[in-house]
Amino acid sequence: MLTSYLLQASHHRGLQVQNHRGDWVDCPPIDGTFVVAIGQGLEAMTQGVCQSTTHRVLSPARGSGARYSVPFFQGVSYDATFESMDVPAHVKALREEVIRRNGIRQDDIEFTFSKGRWGHLGEATLMNRIKSHPDVGERWYPALLQKIREEQARNDQVAEEPQGLLKEKPEVSSTPVTAH
């Protein structure tokens, strides 16, 4: 996915995004607006300059009614091949400065969407969905899920960290924090 656009059509809270520290931040509905999220495909194309949005949705409190949202996902043809954008050196330098200042967010974007890993965007998208939903992968794509897990284990063992920064997985809490 390149980007997504979400209309939160009811008053219920539930959408949260994760900041660089690993805190979950509420994204309350605001009338007349869309939530715009960067996808992993766009992050890979821009070599990490545009970072994908780690997010989750919490169920509404029992008895408070249904939560409605209307998503639109923007992607490219599944048979498209990978091409990276030419990102100017000064923009990459700004990205590195932000990483140094705020800490690094490491995840599996390079694994699922890196150029040359899969033949087409459709393959990368399928692998990403299986990785994100292992219960579904276990039932319908067990061989592919096993392949993904083996590849992740290899990547974890030999990963080289950019600019000598340590790979840190932030501790995640289910306690919402206020956006700033």
TrEMBL record:
UniProt keyword list = Iron, Metal-binding
All residue ranges annotated as the Isopenicillin N synthase-like Fe(2+) 2OG dioxygenase domain in the record: 4-74
Give the range the annotation lists for the signal sequence.
Answer: none
Q: Name the Pfam families for this protein.
A: 2OG-FeII_Oxy
InterPro entries the record matches: IPNS-like_FE2OG_OXY (IPR044861), IPNS-like_sf (IPR027443), Plant_2OG-oxidoreductases (IPR050295)
Q: Does the keyword Mitochondrion apply?
A: no
Give the region (Disordered) as residue ranges. 152-180
MF terms in GO: metal ion binding
Superkingdom to which the source organism belongs: Eukaryota
Question: Protein name, please?
Answer: Oxidoreductase
